[in-house]
Design goal:
By secondary structure, the chain is mostly helical. The chain contains six helices and two strands. A two-stranded antiparallel sheet has the order 1-2. The protein is rod-shaped and about 175 Å long. The mean pLDDT is 75. Pfam families: TMIE (PF16038). InterPro entries: TMIE. This is Transmembrane inner ear.
């Protein structure tokens, strides 16, 4: 061996120290980087709260909230009234009203039955100056029909009347 030469079995400590330093540096960097927050996960400003809804808030088509509620309630009221009129919904009443309505219906039914027993007006009234046995007065339409029926028939002429008519003179002689 020469002076200044190192034995081949002994290696220099520099590569081992460099490897150890690199490992220690990568460990420190990973520890530091794990503490740095991700920009996507950083807290941001809270979202802006929407304006509170009031009666003057424009909902849609430029209509305010109170106008939309009014139109909707009018539509619902119209549907309810229509259904009640079609199906004749019964509105609760007091006992007195129910009994009064029942008495009214019974009275109306009795009156209708009484009217059915009353004879016609022409049988009850007497026409002044008319004979009681005469036939009722004829109307204008009956008079027109009687005239058209009589005028549609041609007069019947018999042979005897034809021979003795004013144009023929009896033979003398």
């Amino acid at each position: 061996m020469a002076v200044g030469e190192r034995p081949s079995s002994c290696s220099s400590p520099q590569p081992a120290l460099l490897g150890l330093g690199a490992a220690l540096l990568s460990f420190c960097i990973s520890a530091v980087l794990s503490q740095v927050p991700d920009p996507e996960l950083l807290p941001t400003d809270p979202p802006k709260k929407p304006d509170p809804v009031t009666s003057e808030t424009v909902v849609f088509w430029g209509l305010r909230l109170w106008q939309v509620i009014g139109i909707f309630s009018m539509f619902i009221l119209a549907v309810i009234i229509t259904l009640c009129c079609i199906f004749k919904c019964r509105i609760p009443r007091t006992k007195k009203e129910i009994e009064a309505r029942h008495a009214q219906r019974v009275a109306a039914k009795d009156y209708a039955n009484t009217l059915e027993t009353v004879p016609p007006l022409n049988e009850l009234t007497e026409i002044p100056g008319a004979l009681p046995d005469t036939v009722s007065l004829s109307t204008v339409s009956e008079q027109v029909q009687a005239r058209s029926a009589s005028s549609s028939q041609l007069p019947v002429v018999r042979e005897e009347e034809e021979l003795t008519g004013p144009l023929t003179q009896p033979e003398t002689g």
